[in-house]
C-alpha cells in the first residue's frame, strides 16, 4: 500500500519528522514534486542530517526515489549523496528518467526574474525551480533520461540554450557566462549522465514503484512544500511551480490515482503558521521586513512582535535552505479546511505543539470576515484572501512539560489544554489525529495510528 504525506499549510510543517517516524515501515520513500527548494532535517542516533533533495528515508536505509514530478539538480543530488557517504551511510537513491533537470541557466534565470518582478516576486529559493517547470510545460526541458542519450541531449541543448541566452541578455540586459554556453553545458550533462548510469540510479518510476507494490513492498509518497504553495490550489502567484497536494502524488510518481487513493493520505499540520516569502497571511503575528507586505517595524504592535519573535525562536523558524527568518501566525482553519478537501486527508499529524507551550493563551483563526461575509475556507484569488480578516477563537495555553516523557507515555500525557486545542482542529476538519509532534527528534512524536499497520 501507499501512505502519502502532504503539507497542509505553507511548507515547513515538519513533514520530514513524520516521514521519518512512519517511514520505518516503508520500503521505498518517494518524492513526487519539487526539487532542492525543500529542506528537511532528519535527526538519527543524535546525528543531524540536512537534506533538500534526497528523500529523508534514504538516511534510514530505505530506497529513496525522486519521481517524475520532481525537478532534479544533479549537482545537489551528488553533493548530498557524497555528504551522506562521508558520514558512513550508503544511500540507495533512484531518479525517474522522466524527471526534469535543473540546469545552471535555470538557477541564473530564477534570480534574474525574481529581481525583475518586484512586488510580484514569490520570494523564491532561487534554486531554478520555476524556470525548470516552465521549460517542462513549454516542452523545451531536458529530462534525466536525456542525460544518458548524447544525441538527444545535444539536440535539446542546441534548441533551448540560445533562447535562454537571448532572454538573459536581450530581455533582462544581463551579461552571460558558461551557464548559457551549449558546449559547456553539454559536457557537464554528459558527466551527470555517466555518474547516473555508473551508479544505476535511473528508473522508469511508475513501473518500478508498481512492481515494488506488487511484490508486497510499502511505499511512502513524500510531498514537499505545502497546499497553500501548490500552483493550482495555493496563493498564486506566491506559490511554487508544482503540486504538493495529493493529486501530485499520482501524477508525479506514475502510480495511478486508485493506488494512491486506496492508501492513506496524512496531512501534516504545524500547530501554528509559518511562511517563507511574500503574499498575504491573515493570521500573521507581527511581520518580517522584506516579506510581510506593507510591513513597517516602526509602527508595528510591540506585544505582537514579541509574541512572534518568541514563537519564531522557540520553533527555530529560520529557513533550512536559505536561513531566512520565517513569518509566523496563528493556525488558520480555513486554510486547513481547503487542504483537507483538496487532498482527501485520512489522518492528521499535528506538529510543534511543544513550541506553543508556556503561552498564556493560544488562538486559532476559525473563519474569515470577507467584506462582511463569513468564509469557512480560502477564497480562490489571492487578492480576495488579502481582504480576509481572520476571526479568532481563543484557547487557554498549556504549560511547558517534559515532552520526551510525554512522547513516551502517549496521548493521554499531553497537557489537557493542548488536547482541547488538537481535538478542536480534528473535529473541525473531521479528520482523525494520527500523530502529535512534541519535539524535533523522531522519539518526540506521539503516535496514535500507524497508517501502514
Ligand atoms: P520556489 O519553490 O523556490 O520557486 O519558491 C516559490 C515559493 O515557495 C516561495 O515563496 C518560497 O519561499 C516557497 N517555498 C519553496 N520551497 C519551500 C519549502 O520547502 N518550505 C517553505 N516554503 C517554500
From TrEMBL:
Binding residues annotated for IMP, in chain numbering: 12-15, 37-40, 125, 139, 225, 240, 324
Cofactors, names only: Mg(2+)
InterPro entries for the chain: Adenylosuccin_syn_GTP-bd (IPR018220), Adenylosuccin_syn_Lys_AS (IPR033128), Adenylosuccinate_synth_dom1 (IPR042109), Adenylosuccinate_synth_dom2 (IPR042110), Adenylosuccinate_synth_dom3 (IPR042111), Adenylosuccinate_synthetase (IPR001114), P-loop_NTPase (IPR027417)
Binding site for substrate: 320-326
Active site: 12 (proton acceptor), 40 (proton donor), 136
Cellular location(s): Cytoplasm
Coiled coil: none
Reactions catalysed: IMP + L-aspartate + GTP = N(6)-(1,2-dicarboxyethyl)-AMP + GDP + phosphate + 2 H(+)
Record keywords: Cytoplasm, GTP-binding, Ligase, Magnesium, Metal-binding, Nucleotide-binding, Purine biosynthesis
UniProt-listed Enzyme Commission number(s): 6.3.4.4
A GO biological process held by the record: IMP metabolic process
Pathway the protein contributes to: Purine metabolism; AMP biosynthesis via de novo pathway; AMP from IMP: step 1/2
PROSITE patterns noted in UniProt: ADENYLOSUCCIN_SYN_1, ADENYLOSUCCIN_SYN_2
Biological role stated in the UniProt entry: Plays an important role in the de novo pathway of purine nucleotide biosynthesis. Catalyzes the first committed step in the biosynthesis of AMP from IMP.
PANTHER family assigned to the protein according to its UniProt record, in alphabetical order: ADENYLOSUCCINATE SYNTHETASE
Protein name listed in UniProt: Adenylosuccinate synthetase
Native source species: Natrarchaeobaculum aegyptiacum
Underlying gene: purA
Amino acid at each position: 500500500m501507499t501512505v502519502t504525506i502532504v503539507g497542509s499549510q505553507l511548507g515547513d510543517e515538519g513533514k520530514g519528522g513524520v516521514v521519518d517516524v512512519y517511514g520505518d515501515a516503508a520500503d521505498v520513500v518517494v518524492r513526487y514534486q519539487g526539487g532542492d527548494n525543500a529542506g528537511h532535517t532528519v535527526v538519527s542516533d543524535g546525528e543531524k542530517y540536512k537534506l533538500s533533495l534526497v528523500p529523508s528515508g534514504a538516511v534510514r536505509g530505505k530506497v529513496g526515489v525522486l519521481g517524475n514530478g520532481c525537478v532534479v539538480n544533479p549537482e545537489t543530488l551528488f553533493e548530498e549523496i557524497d555528504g551522506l557517504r562521508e558520514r558512513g551511510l550508503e544511500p540507495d537513491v533512484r531518479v525517474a528518467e522522466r524527471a526534469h533537470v535543473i540546469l545552471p541557466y535555470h538557477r541564473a534565470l530564477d534570480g534574474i526574474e525574481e529581481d525583475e518582478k518586484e512586488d510580484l516576486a514569490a520570494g523564491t529559493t532561487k534554486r531554478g525551480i520555476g524556470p525548470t517547470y516552465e521549460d517542462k510545460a513549454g516542452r523545451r526541458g531536458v529530462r534525466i533520461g536525456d542525460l544518458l542519450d548524447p544525441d538527444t541531449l545535444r539536440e535539446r541543448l542546441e534548441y533551448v540554450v540560445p533562447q535562454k541566452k537571448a532572454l538573459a541578455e536581450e530581455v533582462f540586459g544581463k551579461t552571460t557566462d558558461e551557464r548559457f554556453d551549449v558546449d559547456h553545458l553539454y559536457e557537464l550533462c554528459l558527466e551527470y549522465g555517466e555518474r547516473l548510469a555508473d551508479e544505476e540510479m535511473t528508473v522508469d518510476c511508475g513501473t518500478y514503484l508498481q512492481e515494488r507494490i506488487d511484490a508486497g513492498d510499502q511505499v511512502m509518497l513524500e510531498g514537499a512544500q505545502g497546499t497553500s504553495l501548490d500552483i493550482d490550489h495555493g496563493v498564486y502567484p506566491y506559490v511554487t511551480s508544482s503540486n504538493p497536494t495529493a493529486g501530485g502524488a499520482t501524477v508525479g510518481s506514475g502510480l495511478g490515482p486508485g493506488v494512491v487513493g486506496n492508501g492513506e493520505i496524512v496531512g501534516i499540520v504545524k500547530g501554528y503558521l509559518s511562511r517563507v516569502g511574500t503574499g498575504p497571511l491573515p493570521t500573521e503575528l507581527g511581520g518580517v521586513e522584506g516579506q510581510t507586505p506593507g510591513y513597517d517595524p516602526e509602527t508595528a504592535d510591540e506585544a505582537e512582535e514579541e509574541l512572534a519573535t518568541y514563537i519564531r525562536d522557540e520553533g527555530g523558524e529560520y529557513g533550512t535552505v536559505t536561513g531566512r527568518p520565517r513569518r509566523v501566525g496563528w493556525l488558520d482553519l480555513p486554510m486547513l479546511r481547503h487542504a483537507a478537501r483538496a487532498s482527501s486527508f485520512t489522518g492528521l499529524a499535528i506538529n510543534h505543539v511543544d513550541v506553543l507551550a508556556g503561552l498564556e493563551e493560544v488562538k486559532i483563526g476559525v473563519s474569515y470576515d470577507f467584506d462582511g461575509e463569513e468564509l469557512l475556507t480560502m477564497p480562490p484569488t489571492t487578492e480576495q484572501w488579502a481582504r480576509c480578516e481572520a476571526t479568532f477563537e481563543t484557547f487557554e495555553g498549556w504549560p511547558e512539560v517534559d515532552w520526551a516523557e510525554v512522547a513516551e507515555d502517549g496521548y493521554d500525557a499531553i497537557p489537557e489544554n493542548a488536547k482541547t486545542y488538537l481535538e478542536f482542529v480534528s473535529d473541525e476538519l473531521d479528520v482523525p489525529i494520527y500523530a502529535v509532534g512534541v519535539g524535533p527528534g523522531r522519539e518526540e512524536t506521539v503516535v496514535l495510528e500507524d497508517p501502514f499497520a
